[in-house]
Amino acid sequence: MQALTLSAELILILLVGLFAQKLHVIGPAFNKQVSAFVLNIALPCMIINSMNVPDAMNKLIQNAWILAISVAVLVLGFLVGLLMGKLLKKHIAERIIRFGATFTNFNFFGVVVVEKLGGEELLFY
């Protein structure tokens, strides 16, 4: 039920944004401004806030394997991006492919969804 409520909220937010753009309430520069705000201010604040759990350092030490797996996934994504960039070099810039394979678009909605569905403890991990 909570996932359904969250989905409805996200769809409502998207529809409000769509109608605001169609009615010219927001301008073309708004997308860049929101992205800059999310990446430069909101996301770092959320990361710092997610570390604000009781006994955070001990949890990090006890679950160092999660960090190791995360680093391995990033390296694997980078290598896949490198390979795909070499194969598609004539069509798409290699660095764009490498970046897209390494980093997902999780930051805009993913962090919010994880916190809403799993709570602060899951967001910490």
Order of helices and strands: HHHHHH
Q: Low-confidence stretches at least 5 residues in length (pLDDT < 50)? A: none
* Count of helix runs: 6
If you compute it from the alpha carbons, what radius of gyration comes out, rounded to the nearest whole angstrom? 18 Å
Q: Strand share of the residues?
A: under 5%
Give the end-to-end Cα distance, rounded to a whole number of Å.
23 Å
Question: Percent range for helical residues?
Answer: over 70%
Largest sheet: none
The average pLDDT value, as a whole number, equals 79
Shape: flat
Number of strands: 0
Quaternary state reads single chain
Task: State the main characteristics.
125 residues, 6 helices, mainly alpha, single chain
Structural write-up:
- This protein has 125 residues and is an all-alpha fold.
- The radius of gyration is 18 Å and the shape is flat.
- The protein is built from 6 helices and no strands.
- The longest helix has 24 residues.
